[in-house]
Amino acid sequence: MTVPLGRRERKKAATRQKIADTALRLFLERGYEAVGIRDVAAAADVAVTTLFSHFASKEALVFERDDDFEQRLTGAVTDRAPGEPLVPALRREVRSMVRHCTADGAAPIFRMIDGSPALREYEESMRLRHAESLAAAIGADPGLSRGTTADRAMARFVIDAYALARAASDPDAALDEIFRMIEAAWAVARPSGDSTGDSTGEAGL
């Protein structure tokens, strides 16, 4: 059960969101490279130190859902219902993330990212970090882990599925196609002699 935020936490969250919203508005209006940290702080009516207490870098202002997405991915592993197979849980979470990132109004943001080397580099490092966290969550569950290499490969496949589907003309169809391949790869990685596993009930993606 989610614990309600206290007043201080709500205030911090509101300030963080205000900074992120202000930064995105300025970046889209003026161009990412043309806007500095001081410009964002001034427009959001906060001190630069306050901005940096919420965001570690200028690039992080664009990816303000970074931590949330990482927690959702690992939570798809650790918080799934008892006995729920891994692949459908991950597919469901990735589908939700893709739908969020392909909603109306998202296209200009991704055009901005694609047009900025700094943002593309940050996004790639973010994906690698998310993949490592996801692999660690899979590896920590002895009922799931196929070994370090397989767990890390699985995590990279899932992160790449998000990126590929987000850019597809039909994201839902792309996810279904990609996750059929992910399921097959995960089944092959099952330890030899193991008659149980996550593929049970996962056919018909």
Overall shape: globular
Largest sheet: none
Q: Approximately what portion of the residues adopt beta-strand conformation?
A: under 5%
Instruction: Give the low-confidence spans.
Output: 192-205
Distance between the termini: 30 Å
Counting DSSP E segments of at least 2 residues, the number of strands comes to: 0
Structural class: mainly alpha
Whole-number average pLDDT?
89
Compressed to H and E, one letter per element, the order equals HHHHHHHHHH
Residue share in helices? 55-70%
Question: What is the radius of gyration?
Answer: 19 Å
Q: What count of helical segments does DSSP give? A: 10
Overview of the molecule:
The protein is an all-alpha fold. It has ten helices and no strands. It has helices spanning 7-30, 37-44, 48-54, 58-62, 66-78, 86-101, 107-114, 117-139, 148-167, 171-188. Helix 1 crosses helix 2 (37-44) and helix 9 runs antiparallel to helix 10 (171-188). Mean pLDDT is 89; it is low at 192-205.
